[in-house]
Amino acid sequence: MADLFTDQDLAPADAPLSDTAPLADRLRPRALADVVGQEHLTGPEGAIGRMVGVGKLSSMILWGPPGTGKTTIARLLADAVDLRFVAISAVFSGVADLKKAFAEAKEHARIGKRTLLFVDEIHRFNRAQQDGFLPYVENGTVTLIGATTENPSFELNAALLSRAQVLILQRLGHEALATLLDRAEAVEGRPLPLTPPTREALIASADGDGRFLLNQAETLFSVDLDAPLDPAGLSAFLQRRVAVYDKDREGHYNLISALHKSIRGSDPQAALYYLARMLVAGEEPLYVLRRLTRMASEDIGLADSNALVQCLAAKEAYDFLGSPEGELAIVQACLYLATAPKSNAAYKAAGAAWRSAKETGSLMPPQNILNAPTRLMKDIGYGKGYAYDHDQPEGYSGANYWPEDMAPQTFYTPTERGMEKRIAERMAWWRDLKERGG
Q1: Mean pLDDT, rounded, for 339-356
Q2: Phi, psi of 116 (to 5 degrees)
Q3: Residue 84 backbone dihedrals phi, psi, to 5 degrees
Q4: Which bin fits 410, alpha (ψ -120 to 50), beta or left (φ > 0)?
């Protein structure tokens, strides 16, 4: 069974820490005003600031990237409104731990001490376990604060979300990360052994994660260097941070959405950036190729029919070359799509045709365009009166191909972009022939 950590187990928020404690712990904020990068929540006009102002918390879900202060904010909230603080992790805890936490919360409630239950990685609890929180949140036994790096709308029960306010923490920006480094240098009493450009490189390497940045700073403080590091020296000295990216989670869908919309918006530079983000983070190249191939038909279509050919050729090239050589073919396909003329006419036509097919059921095509492989079928009129288009003066008969009980429909309307402009002209010419009687 996992241990439950309460405010009796942990040092008070304003208690000094040993010089041997990790730097991130020594710099942990002692008040909400000290939390950096989340002023939209913790400031006087923010959701958290307003709750603290009136001295009453509602249950909430703190959603944000790693290292943005979720645990720290929860602890400070308990101190700010004088609640007993209990923290558990969904990674290491189970039903028995939750039952113990709820039972202890009930006992403390009887003597007038309410409990703030902080659940780290709350999305790791299954649906049944999440349901277990509901009665205790509803009757006020606990004020629940859940922390998650995953989109709550995907990972948490609707019933639990309806009882908790979702607050979004932002990845720490440059200013917030620079402030953390300033504080680290003040605590250590010396500057980091970095040149100014290297300091900027260190901040960029954190990817918005304050905890990671402070851990890197602590490593730098632990060694004696003859001279400040330049960016190349820093890269060799510190382990490169791997981009946060779960291929089955929200980051995956965010980046593929950004790639798709950049291509649709004809921005080859942004499209190439998001493609690189995905591949550098370890996305499966064939997944990217499948999505590019879909875009070729959805967003370009007949405006440039070579777009689909480029994507299929890129797939063949990647299969032949493998990685990393084959990734250049993916880049070529991506850039081709982003710079091609755009049309969603085929995509819209498909949707309209599918809807019509479902609505009209099994209407029989007109008999004149049906094959008649048997004598009986010929006798009852199959194929009778069929006009063979190649025998017509313009190679176009203008015959009716729609079921008798269905009026002709218009599903596909080409745009004036790319090759579709020529297609539109050809279709207009056919309409004119038909109106003139073929």
Answers
A1: 94
A2: -100, 115
A3: -70, 135
A4: beta
